[in-house]
């Protein structure tokens, strides 16, 4: 007998594929097994038993009717039975080989083809049904997508993160109305309590019943780091799979085609089986010309399996009918609803994850099939389509990775002296940050989509916040907290319109630093949000490509003390609004494309420091007008193209610091010595060949930088500057250093590297404040000093 297992290869599938089998496919599979058993049973009988048995007909040829064997059928007529008994003992004079020959010949010529091949037809048709049912599981274009989908689906279903996410949502939904609708009284920690008690209320819920108290443990499970990373990888896989599968509808099309083919096959089988089933008869008349061989030309044959085949045929037709009805229902299901679209509306309502997107094409079709198996699969799978769920997972992974102990190791003092926590290039902001209540400055760089949680209010010492390419959302409830605590705010982004609006409502803010570009079409207007709310603002720094000073700067004109405009080379044209900044003490106009000193600057009576670094200044003849800025003490004109200093620089009596480095100076005016208040003079990185002797008049000079020039000698008058502490002479062309350097008793730093010196004067030993660490010179020159001088310098 042929085992049914031999046909397993035609319908063999992975066990996991069962989730894509709706009930009609499962029913059809069982029906095909039943039909296959009918066919195999018939084939087995056909092979193992005699097919037909024939006996010669003794009636004369002329007396034979058209159906010579019909009279032998048992119809209950006694005469016929008597006739059969009369001829029962007739001898045919045929041997066994002649009977076998007649049986085979009559089987091939007289028996109807349907009666002969019925079991084989059943097997063939059933195999076709099997192939049609499982073809989309085998076809390369569809099987790869199905296998990938089943793999991801199983991992999503079993992921601990899915259980946690749904449990959290379920817990949130049951806090309010759900609890009120229960028949038994519920005693739990009040959900409306403060933040500190809310966590305790989630730990346990006590259900009070008439006779017993039942304590429900929390459903939410804890994820370890490994499980969190696995869930993170699943989110990425689901995203990529969705993009790939939603592009086409090959699965949907293939399923329709194989269903239509099964319906057509069912109709064809049903029609021809109903027509030919009556051809299976018990007695068959056989008329063959074999009289020369056997002596007979007419035979009456018995089809031994006719009775059984007729019963099997009716059973087979019944199964085919049921199979066909399932196929017709499948077509109805395929066409009566839009299966290329799938909505997660019910899941969104149930879980509260309102951002779960609807899907389409093959992705939608597979989810519809999954719902026929178990809708819980779609619900758990939807967790990995939600960006809210993904952000929660990222937050959980961050909290695992960045523990409070690890964050405390990153704490350090910043330039402002505040205890700062700096985080860079993280996928989010760890909640553990808000456990460090000692943090005074929070610096966040390259962190995307920050939403500050209520825990921000725990940073009671927070005074400084930096958001560098880190867009942040701030709930309204936290704006009051930052408005009362924050003193310094730094924001850096691609475009200034990305600056959060809540920044301009921080009333206690004292420093605001903004960095970003205006769009090209708005750069000329340079419109900035109103600063009227910033009543305490003292420092404003703006790095952009503005064409003029933003008009909103005048909103803080009455109390702004420091303004820094860094334009990255873009030309700043309109500067008249600077005149309104009456309280301004420090002004920086860096890389603003200025060719002259702006006249508006001379109207700033309170100005103490001016920085015009990295512009295109060639002439500073307007320097005379600085005498109107009576409080000006620091003037930075470095990194320009200034070729000379005008003589009326002598008018700047109150000037204490003058920076002229990185220019094109070749000489200095002698009148510079009349700037009696000068404490710092930096003329390094120029082309100076000599110094005027009048430099010795600068009796208050403490810092003099002459590095990277072309000086070959120093005037002896320079050493009259008794208060000089720092003298930088590196990278010049000096051949000797005057012994009068010993008169500089306060000197603590002397740079001489990069010159042409052959020896150092031993008078350096008279510079009591000069130690070895403060003397920057080649080792060979240092060794040329007398031993006692070296020992003195090396003393602690």
From TrEMBL:
GO terms for cellular component: endoplasmic reticulum membrane; lysosomal membrane; monoatomic ion channel complex; plasma membrane. InterPro entries: Leu-rich_rpt, Leu-rich_rpt_typical-subtyp, LRR_dom_sf, LRR_domain-containing, LRRC8_Pannexin-like. This is Volume-regulated anion channel subunit LRRC8E. The keyword Transmembrane applies. It is a multi-pass membrane protein. Belongs to the LRRC8 family. It comes from Saimiri boliviensis boliviensis (Bolivian squirrel monkey). Its main location: membrane. Signal peptide: none annotated. The lineage of its organism: Eukaryota, Metazoa, Chordata, Craniata, Vertebrata.
